[in-house]
Known about the structure:
homodimer, 359 residues, alpha/beta, Aspartate Aminotransferase, domain 2, Aspartate Aminotransferase, domain 1, 2 domains, 7-stranded mixed sheet, 3-stranded antiparallel sheet, 42% helix, 14% strand
Amino acid sequence: MVGHLDPQFLGIMDNIQKMLRRLFRTENRLTIAVSGTGSSGMESAFVNVVEPGDEVLVCVNGVFGNRMSDIVERIGGVLHRIDRPWGEVFELSDIEDALASHPEVKAVAIVHAETSTGALQPLEEIGKLCRSSGRLFLVDCVTSLGGERFEADEWNVDVAYSGTQKCLSCPPGLAPVTFSERAVKKLKGRESKVVSWYLDLSMIEKYWTDGERAYHHTAPISMNYALHEALCLVHEEGLEARWERHRRNSAALVAGLEALGFRLFAQEGHRLPMLNAVWIPEGVDDAGFRKALLDDYDIEIGGGLGEVAGKIWRIGLMGETSSRENIMTFLGALEALLQESGCLESPGAGLEAAAAEPG
Amino acid sequence: MVGHLDPQFLGIMDNIQKMLRRLFRTENRLTIAVSGTGSSGMESAFVNVVEPGDEVLVCVNGVFGNRMSDIVERIGGVLHRIDRPWGEVFELSDIEDALASHPEVKAVAIVHAETSTGALQPLEEIGKLCRSSGRLFLVDCVTSLGGERFEADEWNVDVAYSGTQKCLSCPPGLAPVTFSERAVKKLKGRESKVVSWYLDLSMIEKYWTDGERAYHHTAPISMNYALHEALCLVHEEGLEARWERHRRNSAALVAGLEALGFRLFAQEGHRLPMLNAVWIPEGVDDAGFRKALLDDYDIEIGGGLGEVAGKIWRIGLMGETSSRENIMTFLGALEALLQESGCLESPGAGLEAAAAEPG
C-alpha cells in the first residue's frame, strides 16, 4: 500500500485514465474512477451537470432509470420522465416527442444496459439528436462497459458512468466516469456549487488530471490497483474480441435456455449478452430454486427487482464469467434442479443446444 | 468474491457492525461502513441529519472543520462558524458563547483529531452541553478512531464518522459511521429527502440492519473483507492496549524530535499520538526533504495542508505503523538527512532520547 500522493500511485492513476479512455472510446480528458460503487457514478453524473431548476428528460424502463429520476429530483432538477414497459427499449421518436413537449430540457438521460430487465438500448440516434439540439446526453453503461460495444465519442455521449464489478471483472468499489468538454463547460459555468462535496468533479479533477495533484480525498488505493489490473486484462484481450466473446456465449446460453422451454424477458433484437433475463417457469419457487442453486452448485443468479420481483431470473455472463464452461455448468445444474422439482421430464436438451452453438 | 446478497457476505456485514459498535463504544443500531472513503463519511453525517434551513454550528481549527463548513453550505444548511487558530483546540466556553448567540442551532459539529494540525479536541463537556440543550452532536473521528480514546455513547455523540486507512490500518475505501437513536429520529422525521441518493441512510439501513436486506447499491465486497479483518486485529489487541501503544510510541517519537530541536505544532496537552505535527526547521527545503525521505528511505511523511503548507510536517504513527521500530528507522533517516543538508552537527541525540522512553 502506498500513499495517495505517492509518485508511484500517481503513475497508476495516469495509466488508469489512459486505459479508461480506450475503454469508453473517448478522447475526454476528464475520464477517471470515482471513489464509490457504480451508483456513486450515477450520482456524480447528475450532481455535476444538473443545477437546481435545470430541466432533465429521464427515460425509464427499469430500476436504474427510476433511480436516475429519483436523483434528479433530490438535487432540485426539474424532472420530465418518459416510461416504456420494463424489458422494452425506447424509440428515437419517444425522445423526439418528449423534447417537443419540453423544449427547455437541457439534458437527456438513459440507460444503455438495463440490469434489471436485460434490455440493450440503441444510443446512436438519440446521441445525434441531443448533440444537434444542444443538449447534454447522459448514459448509464454500468453493465455494458467492456462487454458490449459502447462508443462515447462516436455516439455523442457527454457523460457516461459505469461500475467495476460487471464486465470489467474487478471487485465493486469504483465508478469509471467520462465527461465530454461540453459537460465540463457546463460544470465550470455552474451558478451553484455542486451539492455533493465528495463527488464535486471541479475539485476532484485537480487531483486526477492536473499537474497540481491537489489533495481532495484519499483515493481507495487498493481498489485502484485492482482496476488497473482489470483494465490491463481487458485491453490484452481487446475490446472487439471481448464484445464478440460476450455475444457468442450469450447465444449459447440462450439456445440452451430456449431448448428447455424458457422464454426471454427483454424485447427481441435488444437483449444484453451479459445479462440474460428469463421468465421463471410456472410452478418453480423463485427463492427456493435460487437458494438450491447457490447451496448445491455455488452458482448465484439474480432475482427480479422491483415490479418483476418473483417473475424473472437474471443470468449474468459478465467479463471473466462469460465462458462456455460456466454456461455448461449452469445448464447442467439448472436441468438437474428442474428435474428434481418435477418441471423437466428428460434433461439434456439444454446442454445439447448450447453445445451446438459456435464456441 | 461473493455477491453482495450472498448469505456469507451478509454474515460478514453483521460481524462488521458488531465490531464497529465495540470500536465506537456505542450501542447504536445504525453503525455501518459507508461505501466510500472517510470524506464520504463526513458527507453522510451532514446530508442525513441536516435539512435545508437547519442551523448548524461548525467549529473550525483546520482543514477538516473547513470541509464540514463547505458541506453544510452546499446542502442548504445555515452555517454558523467559529474559528480557533490552527493547532489549538476549542474551549467549552467557545461553544457556549456561540450557542448563546445562535439559539436556533440544531447541531454542533467538531473534529476530534484534526489531521491537518495534530490537535486533539476534548469532547466530553461539549457532548453534555449538546445533549442537555437538545442539539445533535456530530464528530469527525477519522484519525482518532482505534488509536485514541473515543466514547460515542459516554460522550453523547450523536453522529460520528471515520475512515479505514488511519488507525485501523485497513486500505482506504470505507467510512465507518454511527448514528444515535436521536440522529435516526431526525433522519426519519425529515421533511425533505436526503439530497444524496448514494448516502441516504434511510435506504441503506434497510440493507445493513433490517432482516429485509433490501438492495440499495452493490457493497464494495473486498473492502468489507479488509475491514472485517482489520477490526478482528483491533479487538484482538484490545482498544485500551491499542490507545496505550499509540501514546507510548508518540512519546518516544516526540522525545526524539525535541532532542533534535524540533518544536511541536499543536497546543500543548492537546496533541494527537497518531499524528505528530512539527514546525519545519529553518533552512530545510520542505518538498526536497520529503522527496529524499521517500526516495532514499521509503518513508512518507505528510506536508502541511492549507495555511500551514510548507510550514509543518505531519508524522503519522497510525495503527500497525505505530511501532518502536518505525520510530527508530525514521529518526535515523531524519538525522542522516538533516546532517547531509547541514542542519545537524552531531547525529544520535534523537535516537538516544527515543530509546530512553519506556517501550
